[in-house]
Amino acid sequence: MCNQGNSAAPGSQVPFRNTLAVVSLYVLSGVTQPLLMELAKQAGLADKSCQIYMLFYYFGTASVAILARNDQPLSWERTIKAGLVATIDIVAQTMNYSGATMAGPTIFAIVYSSVTIWCALLSRVLLKRKMSPLQWLSVVIVFLGLGITGLSSLDLGPEVLVGTALVAVGSALHALMYVLSEMVMNNPKEVISAKKYCAVYGTVACFGNLLWQIFYTRQRFDELILSQMRTEGTTYGYALAVLMTIAFMSMVHSVTFFHTVKHVPGGSTTAGVLKALQAVLVFAATSLAFCHRYGGQEMCFTVDKMISLMVVVTGVVLFGKATELVDRQESVGIGTKHMYKRINSLTESEMIASRDTLDA
User: Fold this and answer.
1) CA-to-CA dists, residue 217 to 53, 150, 222, angstroms
2) pTM for this structure?
């Protein structure tokens, strides 16, 4: 899932208008997720111990099962491994979106865009993928940008600092989920549909969150949810609308993610640009929607944030370009290697026949 460049099919197989629409939905759905979490916080639905919004988040991911109903089912071994990966992702996304409610969507967008880089580093460790000097330079640039974000969050109070740290660790764990998913899905012994895998791990994660709601939240629902809703003046209809929108956008993001991976040309470059674009749009949307209306300075445009965003975006896009160059060089190398193998495998009679053909 992380190495998208090699798995992408030619974009010409799908009409350009369809691909453009799907990519637009992928970017916009990614932008709306941290903003929706902020709305959930304003509505009193974001208690960090209850995690009720994460139940709806994973319900949306599990809904991909509707699209994967005709795909070949996973074996028990792969289902168990998908469940273990889902457990890691529960921890990761809980940290990410809890951190988002504490640090604000702008800082979340900047730090979360590092998932692409974490993915590359973990692929180097677990999948033994080599990295070029330009890729390593990109990693250094991204972490420099994250360092600027961390330093600027010190001035915004301890809650923002803790939220920033949660998103940083959550982003790394979410990237680990991608790498482990790739290891499970790319097993040559069993062909696994990407939609089916997404549906399985989404269902496991949704079920795990449901159990938490039953055994923890149910006993504290009035104190931690309903009382907060009354304090914020939130109606039941508005609360349900926010939570169902989180579920719907999660489903859209999951579906469009797999279309983007399969059909959009450009591979890693495209993935990096889209991730960076999401960060920029979240940055802009949060400043327009929430600055001086809700929360504090974590919602507003600052010079430190802009510098950090520009540095991180530069690093992510540069990494995507460097990865595309590496993939291109590997493809040329593989083609040349196959050519030499073909030449070396020619029998003497085949070489004489080829020479006679050329002479003729």
Assistant:
1) 12, 32, 9
2) 0.73
